[in-house]
Amino acid sequence: MSYYIATQIPNNLITFPERKLVKNGETDELKKLIFRGQIYIDDPIDSFAKHTLLHDAIVMNRDELFDFLLAQGANLMVRDANGYTPLLKAASIGRAEMVKKLVEKGVDPRHTDPFGNTPKDKANLYNRYEVVKYLQEAEGKISRGELQTVDWSDPARIRRSGRFITRFDY
After folding, report:
1. Less Cβ around it within 10 Å: N or C end of the chain?
2. How many Cβ atoms sit within 10 Å of the Cβ of residue 7?
3. By the 8 A CB rule, do 100 and 70 touch?
4. Average pLDDT, the chain
């Protein structure tokens, strides 16, 4: 299987200043940096976990930043160092509203991590039953043709700076 993962960060960097802005909830400052072209929404902001802004918005429960990144067209299938997409991450930690928004944006809830676990499997593993129920319903809607998914392997979607988004085969 091939995935796109955030990679190629200099080894001497542990975390970028942007990560502190996410942690502190300084969404307006992050927006300024993005609009000025000083940071790219799909580039990693952590050299260990390879999290993008979207991953960190989910982990740190920053709804405003999450919604902004979705509106700006962030890559919803970029993977961190563990092979987690934003949907896998949100399902694992029980961010039900974020899970719903990602699925509504066209992320297929049946995709897997490198070990074959779907977002529903991850949610079930961590007892996130509200998320499990939603993902079961979403899978049913896809099977019935009531919910459409987006082909995130389209090269036009793998973009932004291109500096740090790399194809990775598991």
Report:
1. N
2. 15
3. no
4. 84
Domains present along the chain, CATH in parentheses:
2-169 (1.25.40.20)
Task: For residue 142, give the amino acid letter.
Answer: I
Q: Which two tokens stand for residue 37?
A: 């072209």
CA pair distance 47, 9, nearest whole angstrom: 6
Tell me: pLDDT of 9 over 80.
no
Distance CA 85, CA 81 (A): 10
Phi-psi region of 140 (alpha: psi -120 to 50; beta: other; left: phi over 0): alpha
Tokens standing for residue 89: 């991450």
Q: What predicted TM-score, i.e. pTM, was given to this entire model?
A: 0.84
Q: How far is CA 143 from CA 14, 68, 148, in A?
A: 43, 30, 10
DSSP-H helix ranges across 105-128: 119-125
**pLDDT confidence band for 151 (50 / 70 / 90):** confident
List 46's β-bridge partners, or say none.
Answer: 15
